[in-house]
Structures are given as C-alpha cells and as structure tokens.
Design brief:
115 residues; Alpha-Beta Plaits; four-stranded antiparallel sheet; globular; 2 helices
Length: 115
C-alpha cells in the first residue's frame, strides 16, 4: 500500500508472556504472528511496544502492546482477522498469557496533522 494512503484506524492488542516464556513470546510475536497478520488485507503495518518509564512503575495491566495500522474499514479488517484466527490461518503460542490479552479497535477521527 502506498505511504500516502490515509490510516483508517488502529488495532491495539495488549498482552504479556507467560512467566518464564518471555523469549518464546517475543520470537513468536515478532517472527510468526506479526508477519501473518500483516498479510490480511487492510492491515498496513504492525509494531510491538513495551511499557517503560515512570508510568511502568505502578502499572498493573499488560506491559506489551502490538499496534496495527489499518488502511481498510476497521471493523471489516478486525472481522477478517478474527475469522482467520478462528480458521487456523494465524498461529497461536502457548507463551502468551491469555488472561492478559485485551484488544482495542480505534477508527480514525479527524485528519492527520504533521509538524
């Protein structure tokens, strides 16, 4: 997709690894899951982030987030992602703590502003 295509939304998936399986979690997420998800039409890119800094000290929720940039209809892209996961097209990992998973789908609201 060309870089000048506007983002239509973002999908954020918060999660943490099972204790003691951090390396497996990181390897699966970066090398298996993200490339598989990026093949879904409407997903432009994906990147992982880890909570750091002062806000991390008292934070009780997941400390990892994957941010997926969308350039298709957000609700349709999410539905396609869920369908592929349920259909077995997206590999899963036992290294992800399922109890920590939270998903948020955001639709673009307003035009982008750059400096």
């Amino acid at each position: 997709m060309p870089d000048d295509t506007k983002l239509t939304g973002i999908l954020m998936t918060f999660s943490d690894p099972v204790q003691g399986q951090e390396a497996e979690y990181d390897a699966w997420y970066q090398n298996v899951h993200l490339p598989q998800v990026c093949r879904i039409p409407g997903i432009r890119s994906a990147q992982r982030f880890r909570l750091v800094g002062p806000g991390a000290t008292n934070h009780t929720g997941p400390r990892n987030v994957a941010v997926y940039q969308l350039d298709g209809d957000p609700e349709q892209v999410f539905a396609d992602m869920v369908a592929q996961a349920r259909g077995g097209a997206l590999d899963t990992s036992t290294a992800i703590d399922q109890a920590s998973v939270a998903v948020q789908l955001w639709s673009a609201h307003g035009e982008p502003v750059t400096g």
